[in-house]
Amino acid sequence: MAGTEAAGQSKAKGFDPRTIDWHDTRSAVSFVNTDGDNLDWSEGDFFRARYSTNYWANPDRGKLPFGWSCCFAHLAQLCPEAIDYAVATQSPNDSLLEWGGGYYYPDLFGRQRPNRWELLAQHARRTWAWMKKNNTRLIGFNVSKLDSADARKAYEVFARQTDGLLAILVFQYDAYEAGAGRKFWVKDRNGLEVPVISARYSIWNHLNHRPRAGTPAKVAREIRQTVEQTPRGEPPRYDWVIVHAWSWFKKAAGNDENAENMSPEEAAAQGGQSVFAPVTWCAERLPANIRTVGPEELIWRIRMQHNPAQTKKLIQDWPR
């Protein structure tokens, strides 16, 4: 680790916002998996097919836009080979985003210290330095209470240490989809607005009793209904779905939204699948008027809705 700050780093392939078709005004949804802050997982069965084909090694990866949460800020110091492998095998439909910059709750970070916000700012600067080296411009936050004063302060403090951060994707520990797609706006060190976007939906087994959460079939219906209920004349819906890494499902046709559920104990013996395959089942149930896009495109569209002048200038100046 002693030499990593001076070492070269592989750079994730980024999304070029100049490729967006702004004439396509359909609603859109993005999918992002949980638990990318798990360093041990990222060094083991997340990437390699010899351990699992549910995650990065899924043979269908790349056929659908997807956001892969990761801990590149730590892997760069502990296992840069994992980053090299991810970048070498990354498809154009794979987005890589930093998951927190560590395992902590930003709204609880250092709260018993008198200089808690200075400490969070220091951590943010360190994390952003690694993100710039690895070309990851999105970060995900797991917070205790997403709309609390401390959470709002944490978003502001973190964003103010960055220059080029695309967005913060935020989810509440209980429940992940509690924010229902709510957005906050903070500013980076250059005074540019950065969105903080809460997860609206959660693919998580045995949670069909909860609004906006549950099986792929249940979540697909909720997405459809949200778009259908959007009043005519309002902007398109742009929301994201958080996909629980440890939930297992089996593919099931028909309208029984509970049929895809299965327990982890029976998953291995009965061919259960997690993360990427269930996302494809969810996407297959969406009508043509709802697109599946990567998180970067979703964020650029959200930024364009909010501040067209600033967003157009950013796209014009975006690195080629």
The CATH superfamily is: GxGYxYP glycoside hydrolase, C-terminal domain
Share in β-strands: 15-25%
CATH topology category name: TIM Barrel
The tally of domains stands at: 1
The residue-averaged pLDDT reads 95
How many helical elements?
10
Low-pLDDT stretches are none
Estimated structural class: alpha/beta
- Give the strand line-up of the largest sheet: 2-3-4-5-7-6
> What gross morphology would you assign?
globular
User: From N to C, what is the helix and strand string?
Assistant: EHEHHEHEHEEEEEHEHHEHH
Question: Rg, please?
Answer: 19 Å
Distance between the amino and carboxyl termini: 31 Å
Look at the structure and give the CATH class: Alpha Beta
In words, what does this structure look like?
It is a single chain. This protein is α/β, with parallel strands linked by helices. It has a single domain, classed as Alpha-Beta Barrel (TIM Barrel). It is 31% helix and 17% strand. The protein has helices spanning 39-42, 72-78, 80-89, 116-134, 149-159, 216-228, 264-267, 276-284, 295-306, 308-316; strands at 27-33, 66-70, 94-99, 138-143, 167-172, 183-187, 193-198, 201-203, 213-214, 238-243, 290-292. It has a six-stranded mixed sheet with strand order 2-3-4-5-7-6, with helices on both faces. It has a five-stranded parallel sheet with strand order 9-8-10-1-11. A hairpin with a 5-residue loop joins strand 6 and strand 7 (193-198). Helix 9 crosses helix 10. The chain is globular. The two termini are 31 Å apart. The mean pLDDT is 95.
